[in-house]
Amino acid sequence: MEKFQTVCPYCGTGCNIDLFVENNKIVKAEPTEKHPINDGELCLKGMYGWEYVHSPRRLTKPLIRKKEGVFSKDGKLEEVSWDEALDFAASRMKRVVAEHSPNHIMGFSSARCLNEDNYIFQKLFRVQGSNNVDHCARL
Amino acid sequence: MTNNLTEFATDSDLIFCMGTNTSECHPIIAMQMLRGMKRGAKLVVIDPRKTDMAKKADYYLQIPVGYNIPLLNAMMNHIIKKGLHNQKFIDDNCVGFEYVKHCVKDFTPERVEEETGIKASVVREVAELYAKVPAASFAYTMGMTQFVDGTSNIFAISNLALITGQIGRPGTGINPLRGQNNVQGACDMGALPHVIPGGWVMTDNAQKQAKNIWKCNLNSEVGYTMTDLPENIEKGEVKLLYVFGENPVMSDPDTHHFIHACSELDTFIVQDIFLTETAQIADVVLPAACWTEKEGTFLNTSRCVQYLPKAIEPAEGLMPDWQVICEIAKRIDLYGFDFRTPKEVWDEVRLMAPAQFGGITYERIKNRELLAWPCPDEEHPGTPIQYTDFKSFHPDGKFKLIPIGYVDGKEERIAFEKKTAEELNMPEGYPVGCGTMSEKPTKISPCMMTTGRKVYHYHTGTMTRECNALEFGADIMGAVIEISTDIAERTGIKTGDYAVVENKRGKIAAKVLVTPNMVENTIFTTFHYAEADANKLANAEDQCPFSKMNPVKMTIAGIRKIDEKEFKEIRIEDDQLMHPSELYRQARQAIPVAEVSS
Amino acid sequence: MNLSRGINKFVIANPDICIGCATCMAGCYQSAFERGKLAVPRLIVTRSPNGVMPNQCRQCDDSPCANVCPVGALRFGDDFIESYEEICIGCKMCTLACPFGAIRAEAEIMPSIDYAIIPDYNLGLESVIGSKSVAVKCDLCTGRDGGPACVEVCPTGALIIMDGSVMDGQVVSQKAHDSVSAYIDNRASSTR
To answer: Which of A132, B112, B403, C180 yields a CA-CA distance of 20 to 30 A from B48?
Structure first.
């Protein structure tokens, strides 16, 4: 069993968690002793809120809305390859910027994800000339 | 936060909680507050609901939903009248005291008593306590901000703290308790329409940094906010929406309007770890590695950057979010997305905002140094307490005191602002704040409605509802509608009855819990449950003029008892609205929630 | 002299420091699940107009539940009331007899039911469930290393296990000492 000191993914307190991992599975979480923020204590979400990581309902394959094999607004979400999904997303973004303007794309970033994720996400919009990036600080 | 959250335990003499259900939304901060109380700190709680912290408070003031500005102004009225304000601090560090003095003069503690029933003597005692203690710390959350006068509410807090000099010392300051693990980080990383790491988009510094580091010309006009989005889509001004790690179908106000607007998009990209309610209406869904499956950093509410190692391997093919976004950027042939590790990304952040993050290296935070920005160089110990030099971020270093009033209807707001500016002969562009109610009870929607969280769930439940100990262990109630006792008496609805809460935007059905803890004529429910999402009823039409925030915490609604048949019909209808995807339904049937083992 | 020899031990919360965060309920669920018991919490965070604390079995020395149980699913153990869920017949007599509302008739969550639509799932408000129920109550996490999970996970230390020595030292003797001191001091000052 291996121990990793990490940070709780729920509220903004930033409690430190000792996560115990065995065979690539989280087996338990314990509060980090004597940490200045949470001092060896955790609430229920820190202690038991990791189970979703191993949920069988996690998405593992990209999806595109398709009807009869091609993209269609009336279609249903179907599993596709990573290349197809990324190419599709990139080409649609490129097209909207070219046909309309950079102001016609908007990004909704995530206060749940890493600083690194957020930085890259807003950079994607900014370098294309759009300031339409927001996240749920408002909500 | 201007302070570190542990200062509640170690330094504050008064913890002033307003619009925060601290023990449910931030249990560990509540624990620190309790430690402070054990040391002798006093606790004041102001909230429409008598929360568990309110029950422990030395003073609890039960205000009607949205009655923030009149109360804070009345406190300032009394403080100024008694000469308890800190004249030296004001003279040395602030501008605009005469404006505030003018604006609070009509807000007497007696007026508060008349309008709310809270004793004027209690308002006076609380005001004196705040002004007199050596270290007063103000804590607030969405119960202050999610109103049509949200920014004015915060101006009022800052006025109160500044006229009494309650800022810039240990355990003394203004402390918004951040609700999400990295909401501070998302703001600091520039996931906002007006700011990049390096400053506001129109400033020379931001423009220069973008040119030098990103090698691009930064658009200097502020972008759209999320709250403007549905309208912008309908006007054809937004064609492509890329949602990443959020579930706006459930978390944004007025669900029907939001879903309808999204159907008009040219392309809707969603990146998430589950097939959320939002992902189900997307055109492209991109999965990604989640927490513990990737390395990186979070920024907590005390502005501390903390390191998270990668602890487990994600399922095959899953990349960290930043890598997925880089892949898309590369396919659009954009420059500057050749990052190999999160450390390289972070190092670019440090280059972009050296004054804030320059000294916060991966090496230091991996060594578990707890560094709060600003931290400009690698020798710098970080800045746990802000404003210790009593200088603001404005160019002249002075704190601005903002005149705040309160008017009866939202239509009167602009006239009030204009009148105040003229009366006080204020310089051009000096802000004036004004509180008001976004909606008032009507014949059809006679109750006030507000929203919040439960301790065992989180936001839209995407993660917590997948955790059995939370979903089945702590949450034994499921979605419930909490109502005040006077509504129960008036309508004859009892605890355990089925009821529907509805207004012009939508309706939700759930069982009722009658609670004596609620201020009169008020309904409370959460937005954790797709089967009864309070945001279906929330107001997305009105906005705070400064921040464009919608008044999510204040809605009007009607309530009536229903039978089990109607309850089921509404629930099935809701299920079809929230979960249109066949893939989701198949997955739900194949792997029922209860069978997921720990 | 040990005043408390022979009394049952039990878990109780201090409402002065309980913040109602329900970490105990999640811990209780997890402990029951891991020990192969019916996976439901055995203590329920309960709110009154003036406070909050979890409510759970007091392990009464002469417990009405064990007295009333017709099949011995609830039994007098050495120092607590033992619970044998596997032989419970679901008669609910213990639920009626318990003066604290600390025993609930609960049933397994059924995988075939979508509880978001079918309204039977609202256990906090009523315990009417469409399948055979069993009586669940606090069993002090019998078989769990480290004792009751709720006591271990409570972030404010509000939950404590009351056994004879705690009862003796911290409650009875302490209170006796305090009251005697107060009486003597009071007399001394009034007769001086």
So the answer is: B403
Q: What is the pLDDT of residue C184?
A: 92
User: How much of chain B, in percent, has pLDDT values that exceed 90?
Assistant: 80
User: What is the rounded CA–CA span in Å between residue C175 and residue C171?
Assistant: 6
- Partner-chain contact C21 A42, CB within 8 Å: no
**Residue appearing with tokens 């000052």:** C189
- Is residue B597 predicted with pLDDT exceeding 60? no
Q: Which residues of A touch B272 (CB under 8 A)?
A: 59
Q: C1 pLDDT band (50/70/90 cuts)?
A: very low
By the 10 Å C-beta count (0-12 exposed, 13-18 middle, 19+ buried), B395 is classed as exposed
A88 vs B585 pLDDT, higher one: A88
CATH of domain B183-300+303-372: 3.40.50.740
Least confident span in B461-470, B587-596, C89-98:
B587-596
Average pLDDT score over residue span B362-373: 92
Residue C1 in domain: no
**What's B595's DSSP letter?**
G
Q: Which residue of C has its CA nearest to B469?
A: C26
Number of helical (H) and strand (E) elements in chain B, helices listed first: 24, 23
Chain center to CA of B100? 26
pLDDT band of residue C119 (cuts 50, 70, 90) is low
Q: How many residues does chain B have?
A: 598
Chain B positions touching A40 (Cβ under 8 A) are: none
Beta-strand pair B522-526/B447-452 = parallel
C156–A41: do the CB atoms touch at under 8 Å?
yes
Q: Calculate mean pLDDT across residues C88-116.
A: 84
C158 assigned to some structural domain:
yes
Q: How much is the pLDDT for B598?
A: 36
- The end-to-end CA distance of chain C, in Å, is 35
Domain boundaries, chain B: 7-178+395-435, 183-300+303-372, 447-591
B200 bridge partner residues: B195
B260-to-A65, B255, B475, C6 alpha-carbon distances in Å: 17, 8, 32, 68
Domains along chain A with CATH numbers: 2-54 (2.20.25.90), 59-99 (no CATH), 101-139 (no CATH)
The fold of B447-591 is Barwin-like endoglucanases (2.40.40)
Nearest to A58 among B283, B315, B550 (CB): B315
Is C142 inside any structural domain?
Answer: yes
Comparing CA positions, the residue from C73, C104, C103 lying closest to residue C89 is C73
User: How many angstroms separate the CA of residue A19 from the nearest CA in chain C?
Assistant: 15
Q: What span, in angstroms and rounded, lies between the C-alpha atoms of C60 and C74?
A: 12
Q: How many CB atoms lie within 10 A of CB B347?
A: 15
Asked whether B471 and B593 are in contact (CB, 8 A), the reply is yes
**Domain boundaries, position C68:** 10-162
How far apart (Å, rounded) are the C-alpha atoms in residues C48 and C44? 13
Distances (CA, A) of B201 to A104, A115, B402, C146: 18, 19, 24, 55
Q: Does C182 map to a domain?
A: no
pLDDT band at B343; cut points 50, 70, 90: very high
Residues in B touching A138 (Cβ below 8 Å): 225-227, 547-550
pLDDT of residue C125: 39
As its CATH architecture, domain B7-178+395-435 has: 3-Layer(aba) Sandwich (3.40)
Please give the distance of CA A124 from its chain centroid, rounded to a whole number.
15
Specify whether the CB–CB gap between B304 and B382 falls below 8 A: yes
ipTM metric: 0.96
Measured distance CA(C8)–CA(C65) in Å, rounded: 14
Q: Average pLDDT for residues B432-454, to the nearest whole number?
A: 92
Provide the number of structural domains found in chain C. Answer: 1
The yes-or-no verdict on residue B329 having pLDDT over 90 is yes
Give the containing element (helix H, strand E) for B72: helix B68-81
